[in-house]
Amino acid sequence: LRSFNSLLNDLLKGEKMGLFWKVYEGMIPGKISPDVYTFTTLVGAFCKIGNINEARRVFKEMGEKGCSPNAVTYNTLIAGLCRNGRVGEAFEMKREMAEKCLVADGFTYATLVGGLCKEGKSEEAKLLLDEMSKMGLKPNHVTYTTLIDGFMRQGDIEQAFALRDEMVKCGIQPNIITYNTLIRGICKMGKMDKAHELLHEMVQMGYKPDVFTYNLVIEGHCREQNLGKACALLEEMKKRNV
RNA sequence: UAGCUAUAAUUG
């Protein structure tokens, strides 16, 4: 069964959906019955293709088959709902978790924070941090980076950098994704000098600019009609094999 | 006493 589940996940990650369904259908009638992992993977698969109705159907049916959704299953569905702009329903699921005595964890909150941010409600998302600490949960890289991205997309650079400072104060060092997120925000605003400042800072901190970083900064320079700098970076990334 | 598999953040 574990091998089956692993196989299903590999197929899903490799976007081999045709094979994915064949393998899944092959396991149902046989001796091996799906477990929570299998069902959760299935819920995730439907979410991934944007078919929330099917995801919900699997979610409901697994319970009827004596295999109740656990916190991971809830988180998976909540992520699917958020990705599809159905944040209201996502919060409803969080409430349902509590009713079922399942504990919302860092994944749950980071997902909901992302959902709200995507709707342009970063302020509201930030309030979830308070709720988290009441629950005894500490925000991590993902939570902060998600929020920073949310504020950046709303054009609130101040708040984004304030959150960066806050995470550092809490002992969480920005990682490469955090840097890329900050760089994305300021490049979009055309502040290319500030972008290079951050680029320098991330190198100082021991991070190597990756494809994301280069693409963002190059695009920024192109938008500012500075093809010279864009090409220089392109050369640099070629030389570094990124 | 239950290992190994499932969920959240950045470019194109």
Rough outline: globular
Low-confidence stretches: none
Category from helices, strands and their pairing: mainly alpha
Number of strands: 0
What is the typical, i.e. mean, pLDDT? 94
Provide a count of the helices: 14
The proportion of strand residues reads under 5%
Indicate the multimeric state. Answer: single chain
The rounded distance between the terminal residues' Cα atoms is 39 Å
Largest sheet: none
What's the helix-strand series?
A: HHHHHHHHHHHHHH
Helix content: over 70%
Rg, rounded, reads 21 Å
Structural features, described:
The chain is mainly alpha-helical and 242 residues long. The protein has 14 helices and no strands. α1 runs antiparallel to α2, α3 (36-48) packs parallel to α5 (71-83) and α11 (176-188) runs antiparallel to α12. The longest helix is centred in the N-terminal third of the chain and has 13 residues, at 36-48. The protein is globular and about 65 Å long. The two termini are 39 Å apart. The model has no long low-confidence stretch (mean pLDDT 94). The structure holds one RNA strand of 12 nucleotides.
